[in-house]
Structure formats: structure tokens, C-alpha cells
Write a structure and sequence with these properties.
Low-confidence stretches: none
Number of domains: 1
Strand content: 15-25%
Helix content: 25-40%
CATH superfamily: Ribonuclease Z/Hydroxyacylglutathione hydrolase-like
Largest sheet: 7 strands, mixed
InterPro entries: Metallo-B-lactamas, RibonucZ/Hydroxyglut_hydro
Shape: globular
Protein name: MBL fold metallo-hydrolase
Number of strands: 16
Distance between the termini: 35 Å
CATH architecture: 4-Layer Sandwich
Length: about 300
């Protein structure tokens, strides 16, 4: 096994194990943490010391190409060496399968900066396609329409993915499904935390479609891009760096159904309490200010 860049931690823990990269003490030496989901899929989580968002990206490998979903919140390799880490993982994959290094497609679950800043590290990388983050570019590259619930296929070579437009949180949001692995990659549309809804009608359509797709393709695990709740369902405020007793980052299909139902019940702007996500619909300025104030207080007292 090759050596990952300095500051990158590889673990062999189960998916529900705690992450060192968001622990107050363990994160001191960690910029990025890599966790294998199976032999061909890797979760890459940025340290909360690099970004308080601690975003999670995913590298999926086939026999003909690889797909990186999200590049995180650090433009510079010195902050977080996402490109060098991907290079090592792809070299290992290629060697173990006796093939040349795979061409890489860099795409995004959606277009917000904490998922796209790392694109700069991949500029000029050979055999690399970076999908621009505007809606038109995303839909054009994957062959998507604007109809929520429709899918297109994206073949990695002996691993065929399904891509679906799922706006609501962001007009550029997509959901990626790996039917063979039973996995759904949901970005910021479903994870243990807060769902910020920009377009409520679109979110209702998208969550309903995601549940239908999960049931149709026997999905057992939903993998999102953040964790904002602890194991008791309490949320971490905005800007919190350290996640004590963090909830597992995976969701079940049953939890996805619960989220769909919570979104369907939401009837306007504001905060709608739910499980596994609390919904922040529209411009919820006062609740967001309170979240921010809590986060600042946690930072000042050393709690977060």
C-alpha cells in the first residue's frame, strides 16, 4: 500500500465509526481522512480544522474511469491535499487491477463553494475532466433533463451509475446512485443535520423522487456530504469545528422516507423540525443568526 500525503489519515473503520478529523484532539494532525466504503469507493472527509463544514466527497472507481464527487473547501494543496490523495488512491487501484491510471471526472453533488473550492487543485491534471458547476454544464455533461425523477446512466467500466437531478437545496444538485453497491450519494439534500431549502416545491419533488429511486434500486445506504448532528439528534451550531459524539454519516432508506415526509409537511419559510434533518426553508434570517451566535459562543468557550 502506497503512502498518502502528509496530513492524510487512512482508516479501516466501519462506516458508523467516529471520524478523527472532527475530533478536538485527533484532528490536530489531520487535514483529510480517507475511509473505504468498498474496494472501489472511498469517502474523503476534510478536517474541521481546514473547514468547519468538514465536507465529505467520494471517489468511485471503475475499470475505465473514475468519478470524484466534490473537491471540498480548500483551494491550496497545503491546506488539504485532495488531488495528491486522489492520485495515490487511483495509482493503488490501477496497480491492483493491472490497468493504466484511470481518467478522472471531477463533478459535484451541487455547486456551493465548500464542495467546489478544491477544483483548483485539479486544473491542468492530465486525463481529467472538470465538470463546471452551473446547471447547464452539469445537465449537458451527464445528459440530464430538468425533469425531477428522471435518470441517466454514467458508466465507469463494470460499474454503471445513475445520475438524477434533485434541485431544492440548490438548483445544481444531483443525486448519484450505485445500484450494484446499494448506495445513494445525496450531497446536501440528505444527511444528519440541516437541510437548507432554496426552492421548497423542487425539494418536495426531489425527495419523493429519491425515495422512489432508492426503493426501485434496492438502496440500503444513503451517503451525504456533512454531519451536523450528534448521536442524540442535537445539532452542532454553524462554525463548530469539533464534533463530540457525532452521529454516523450514513442514513438508511427509512430515514430518507422520514425526511421526504418532513419536507412534504413543510408549508412555508422558516424552520421545520424533523429527523434526521431540520429544514431551514427560504431566508430564515433570525434562526440562522441564532445558529451563528451559538457557534461563535462555542468557539469562544473552546467547546467547538
Amino acid at each position: 500500500m502506497t503512502v498518502l500525503p502528509e496530513g492524510v489519515l487512512r482508516d479501516a473503520e466501519p462506516l458508523d465509526a467516529p471520524w478523527d478529523c472532527v475530533d478536538k484532539d485527533a484532528s490536530q494532525q489531520v487535514k483529510l481522512q480517507v475511509r473505504a466504503i468498498d474496494e472501489a469507493i472511498f469517502a474523503l472527509r476534510q478536517s474541521s480544522r481546514v473547514s468547519p463544514e468538514a465536507p465529505i466527497g467520494y471517489l468511485l472507481c471503475g475499470t475505465e474511469r473514475a468519478l470524484l464527487l466534490d473537491t471540498g473547501d480548500a483551494k491550496e494543496a497545503a491546506q488539504c491535499p485532495i488531488r495528491a490523495t486522489v492520485d495515490v488512491l487511483l495509482d493503488e487501484w490501477s496497480e491492483s487491477h493491472g490497468v493504466a491510471r484511470l481518467p478522472l471526472v471531477v463533478a459535484h453533488t451541487h455547486g456551493h463553494n465548500d464542495h467546489t473550492e478544491g477544483d483548483a487543485q485539479f486544473a491542468g491534471r492530465p486525463d481529467t475532466t472538470i465538470v463546471a458547476k452551473d446547471v447547464e454544464a452539469v445537465h449537458r455533461f451527464f445528459g440530464l433533463t430538468e425533469t425531477v425523477g428522471t435518470t441517466t446512466t454514467f458508466d465507469l467500466g463494470e460499474r454503471t451509475l445513475l445520475i438524477a437531478p434533485t434541485p431544492g437545496h440548490d438548483a445544481r444538485s444531483i443525486t448519484t446512485i450505485d445500484p450494484a453497491a446499494g448506495l445513494m450519494f445525496s450531497g446536501d439534500t440528505a444527511y444528519p443535520g440541516r437541510l437548507y431549502v432554496d426552492d421548497l416545491p423542487a425539494a418536495k419533488l426531489s425527495l419523493a423522487a429519491m425515495v422512489d429511486l432508492a426503493e426501485t434500486h434496492d438502496i440500503h445506504t444513503v451517503l451525504g456530504a456533512h454531519v451536523e448532528n450528534d448521536r442524540h439528534g442535537r445539532d452542532y451550531p454553524v462554525l463548530t469545528r469539533f464534533h463530540r459524539d457525532e452521529a454516523p454519516f450514513t442514513l438508511t432508506t427509512a430515514q430518507l422516507r422520514a425526511l421526504r415526509d418532513d419536507v412534504q409537511r413543510a408549508d412555508g419559510n422558516g424552520v421545520h423540525t424533523g429527523d434526521p434533518m431540520t429544514l431551514y426553508v427560504g431566508k430564515a434570517y433570525w434562526p440562522m443568526l441564532k445558529l451563528l451566535a451559538r457557534g461563535v459562543a462555542w468557539r469562544l468557550t473552546g467547546r467547538g
